[in-house]
Automatic annotation (TrEMBL), chain A:
Compositional bias of kind Acidic residues: 48-58
Protein name (record): DNA polymerase III subunit gamma/tau
Chain spans, region Disordered: 1-58
Biased composition, class Basic and acidic residues, residue ranges: 1-10
Transmembrane segments: 69-87, 108-131, 137-156
Alphabetically ordered keywords of this record: Membrane, Transmembrane, Transmembrane helix
High-level lineage: Bacteria, Bacillati, Actinomycetota, Actinomycetes, Micrococcales
Automatic annotation (TrEMBL), chain B:
InterPro entries named in the record: MetI-like_sf
Record-given protein name: Uncharacterized protein
Transmembrane segments: 42-62, 93-111, 123-145
Organism in which the protein naturally occurs: Frondihabitans cladoniiphilus
Region (Disordered): 1-33
Subcellular localization, as worded in the UniProt entry: Membrane
Length: 158, 151
């Protein structure tokens, strides 16, 4: 059995097939299928980078940088941990009230306290536009400082 | 985060001065750049409802401010007469006053954040500050419990 003869047989008659494989065919071909026309209605990278000031580092509107994505992930995790800490410790702070209304208002307040980290995170994302990453970062930091779950940390109970 | 963007303070450029175009496409409303200021009637209702809710926090704080020191005084007299004045505890006045001030500050901050903005933004602002007020109030109350251990 000759190896060379086998290679020759494989090479003969396949050159045209290779050329056809490298082309999409023509519209007159029966197997030709016209693909769907995609309209580019969204953000176009080339257009977004053509600013008047020539700042190539500035991202187009509505696009968050990878750094800010990481920041959102980190602060989201922190706020989620805060919410869990509030949930774990809120039952330890239960003063007694004379009226049912006061008792219910306190309960509502505790629910808001448990949800406060989540509310702060979502409200910051909603209120501060993505084009202001520094301000959003500041709001996240303020939220972390304000919403520290002190009942969980100091272990207060009543 | 862009390094070229200078870090502004929260008061340097309040949200209401950003203009409608500052509303990012990441907003929940999905309305993009369109934001209509809230009508005066809707604003009045919102301010009234939020005012009542925040006023309750102030009312509760006033009650604590008048009742908790009396309990500390009674406990202080009790341990002093019992010959153990070292067990007397100092009234946590800073925490009690802070509980009174927190709702006021929260209401004013929500007013400032939502000034000239849509009703939804105003509502979110009040929800944000009320949640923070509740968290701070519970934290300060827990602190009072911690330092007193008599309530």
């Amino acid at each position: 059995m000759s190896v060379d003869s086998g290679r020759d047989e494989a090479g003969v008659g396949t050159s045209d097939d290779d050329d056809e494989a490298l082309s999409w065919g023509e519209s007159s071909d029966k197997s030709y299928v016209e693909g769907p026309v995609v309209e580019r209605t969204g953000w176009v990278p080339d257009q977004g980078l053509e600013d008047d000031d020539g700042d190539d580092d500035e991202l187009p509107e509505g696009v968050m940088s990878s750094t800010m994505l990481v920041v959102h992930g980190v602060f989201g995790a922190i706020f989620l941990l805060f919410a869990v800490a509030w949930l774990k410790s809120i039952s330890n702070v239960a003063p007694s009230f004379a009226s049912p209304l006061a008792d219910w208002m306190w309960r509502i307040g505790t629910w808001f306290a448990v949800a406060s980290p989540v509310i702060w995170f979502l409200a910051t994302v909603y209120l501060v536009p993505v084009a202001k990453p520094s301000r959003r970062f500041v709001w996240f930091v303020v939220g972390v400082v304000v919403l520290i779950p002190w009942p969980f940390l100091i272990g207060a109970s009543a | 985060m862009s390094t070229s963007d200078a870090t502004p303070g929260l008061e340097d450029e309040p949200l209401e001065t950003q203009g409608p175009e500052a509303e990012g496409p990441d907003s929940f409303d999905g309305e993009g750049a369109v934001e209509h200021p809230a009508g005066p009637r809707a604003v009045a209702v919102l301010l009234l409802v939020a005012g009542v809710i925040f006023a309750w926090s102030i009312y509760a704080a006033v009650g604590n401010l008048t009742q908790v020191p009396a309990q500390f005084d009674a406990y202080r007299d009790f341990v002093t007469k019992g010959g153990a004045p070292e067990l007397a505890k100092t009234t946590p006045w800073p925490a009690l006053i802070a509980v009174l001030l927190v709702p006021v500050v929260g209401y004013l901050v929500a007013l400032r954040l939502g000034r000239g903005r849509s009703l939804r933004v105003r509502l979110v602002s009040f929800a944000l500050t009320y949640a923070a007020v509740c968290a701070l109030t519970v934290s300060l109350t827990a602190y009072v419990f911690k330092v007193s251990s008599l309530l």
